[in-house]
Amino acid sequence: MAGWSALCAEMDTVKRRLKAHDRRALWPHEPCRPPAPPERIAGIAAVTLCPVDPDYAAFLRHADGWPGILQDIDLFGTRDFGTSAYADAEESVRTIGEVARIEGDRGFSRLVPIGASRDDIDVLVLHCNGKRDRRSPVSWLAGGEVERYPTFTDFFLAMIAANVAEADFLARPRRPGPCSATAGNRLRPLRR
User: Fold this and answer.
1) Helix crossing, 152-171 with 4-21: angle to 10°?
2) How much of the chain is in helix, strand and coil states, percent to nearest 5?
3) What's the rounded Cα separation, in Å, for the pair 168 and 14?
4) Among 4, 159, 170, 176, which residue is least crowded by beta carbons within 10 Å?
5) Measuring CA to CA, how many Å separate 23 from each of 20, 28, 178?
6) What's the pLDDT tens digit per position in 79-137?
7) Alpha carbon 44 to chain centroid, angstroms
8) What is the mean pLDDT of residues 159-182?
9) Residues 191, 119: contact at Cβ < 8 Å?
10) Is 185 helix (H, G, I), strand (E, B) or coil?
């Protein structure tokens, strides 16, 4: 598998292509943030009360978050933990947990938000497992669990694929109406 430098470069290329085809400015198009210093990555655990997932930590060493990783969903960086966006995402996770059953994996104690939609109910969460060296699944929540990825790396690869699908869709001539590809190649209507 490619390293994080290559994966971030691939996502950047795809995001630039998506921006070029997004003629109606449907989505924010921002680059990844600069790398996070190790002390800020380590500080996430103080906010989340959970060890930082090793894949997520490796990503943060290359990009300290990515605004608009998919549509209007921001992937949190170290400075987002403890902010109002993080608190809102935690509240959404609590609310979703009260109304929908989210199957936990054995040994995982809680869901830690690592991203959220700016304007909708989508929240990205890592399953906290309490172990520093154990890779955790990532779930995409929106009223319930939409998708689950075995690891953060798998999640990121799915976001690359979803952005490719979105760019392909927007590049097609004479579309019948706005629609967007999501991870897992599902389609959902645009929210604008």
Assistant:
1) 20
2) 40, 20, 40
3) 10
4) 176
5) 7, 12, 12
6) 999 999 999 999 999 888 766 666 655 545 689 999 999 999 999 999 987 777 789 99
7) 16
8) 79
9) yes
10) helix
**Interior angle at CA 104, CA 102 and CA 106, nearest 5:** 170
pLDDT, position 174: 60
Q: Which pLDDT band, with edges at 50, 70 and 90, does 187 fall under?
A: very low
pTM: 0.86
What structural domains does the chain harbor? 4-188 (3.40.1580.10)
- The rounded distance, in Å, linking the Cα atoms of 31 and 100 is 34
Q: Please report, for residues 6, 37, 54, 80, 161, the alpha-carbon distance to residue 183 in angstroms, rounded to integers and kept in the order given.
A: 20, 30, 22, 23, 7
144 vs 99: CA distance, rounded Å: 8
Find the DSSP H helices in the chain. 4-21, 38-48, 54-60, 84-99, 152-171
Name the residue type at position 18.
Answer: L
Q: How many residues does the chain have?
A: 192
Q: What is the largest CA-CA distance in the chain?
A: 50
